[in-house]
Amino acid sequence: MTDILIRNAMIFDGSGDAPFRGHVRVSGNRIAAVMRGTDEVPQEGAQVIDADGAFLMPGLIEGHGHISFIDQADLMDLAVIGVEEHTLATMHNARKLLEAGFTSVNSAASAKVRLDAVIRDEIEARRIPGPRLRAASPEITVTSGLGDANRMHVKLHTFGLVVDGVDEVVSTVRMCIREGVDNIKLNISGDVFMPNADSFSTVMADPEVRAAVETAHAHGKRVAAHCRAADSVKRAVRNRVDMIYHCDHADEEALDMLEEARDWVLTGPAIGVIIKSLEMLKAADDPALQPQIDELQTLYDDNCWTHGEMMKRGIPIVVGGDYGFSVNPQGTNANDLEHFVKHYGFSEAQTLHCATMIGARAMDMADSIGQVREGFLADLLLIDGDPLSDITLFQDKSKLTMIMKDGLIHATGNGQTAEAGGRSWLAAQ
Ligand SMILES: [Zn+2]
């Protein structure tokens, strides 16, 4: 296979440092050389892509994906969809994410036990296009917690596996691992609009969390947790949960604990669904919706405060989260980049650092993806424009001039799959 030489690009390497002029040579599936400056470099044996000053950066990393969510308006849609349709929908979502510039997705829960895992394996075998994927379990929750859709005389599965007590937790975690997941997901706190477990409540008991983490870690798997309440964040840190999502209502003590743990813990806000839901509810202009608006507004305000504090304290934050609802469909995940700038006040460079180098930690691939660096895997985006002055560029697929994953070109603007030939994904089939 010939090399690819991307010449004359503005290279953002993922570290957050200012971009620099240079050339990048890709050999096989790896970045063979990153050459600073404008001097010409040897082109022999390479297909040359003239970037003409365009912005070259690592592929985006979705830190909290749910690629088996089907853009549902009602969670009951997940209860009635057939396994066959659901598998195909998940496959299509994987492609959408890649075509939106996300070359990796760390899953934070699959709607059914094996959906993420089978799609991950198909992508890895290069039988379908999609991002690198860490597969997750469904959301393991407690009776009456977030994800328990059952009623007294009706068993309903939407996205949760309902367990109570240490024994059930352990056997469910082991079952998910047997079926091929990389990440175990726990719902430690409740959520907005839950009648008996609101976002300030911490409903999964400490021994249940401890047993889940011990079991997952014993098998070399990671644990992610849904934690909105301050106590749920503390419970997660104490029990060494690897990825603690949301943290909306974290207090000073919870932030101190996260700061202390910042070398090993990761957080991710999933702010997009809150913003879009608030916009939708307000636009409905219906007084009956005011209690829901108030509840979401509190969540939004707390979420923004918490993440401003986290940035000051150097707590690592991944971009993305909870795309796959009707208000924020799959493939619009890059809206999160704008949210980080507009709602948290992060700089564009800080935001892209979160979406690349920090995201690589969520993938457990910090030494091989998330940077434009010699020896790293060739997951690269070429952007028509400067996202450091306009972070919304990623929302326009025609600006994604090249999407490369694992050294293969997947798309070339307008979300179009690259034509067969050369180093395209199609040609590699
Ligand atoms: Zn989620």
UniProtKB/TrEMBL annotation:
The keyword Hydrolase applies. Keywords: Hydrolase. The keyword Ribonucleoprotein does not apply. Pfam families: Amidohydro_1 (PF01979). Residues 55-407 form the Amidohydrolase-related domain. One of its GO terms (molecular function) is hydrolase activity, acting on carbon-nitrogen (but not peptide) bonds. Gene3D superfamilies: Metal-dependent hydrolases, Urease, subunit C, domain 1. InterPro entries: Amidohydro-rel (IPR006680), Metal-dep_hydrolase_composite (IPR011059), Metal_Hydrolase (IPR032466), Metallo-dep_Hydrolase (IPR051781), OTAase-like (IPR057744). This is Amidohydrolase family protein. It comes from Oceanomicrobium pacificus.
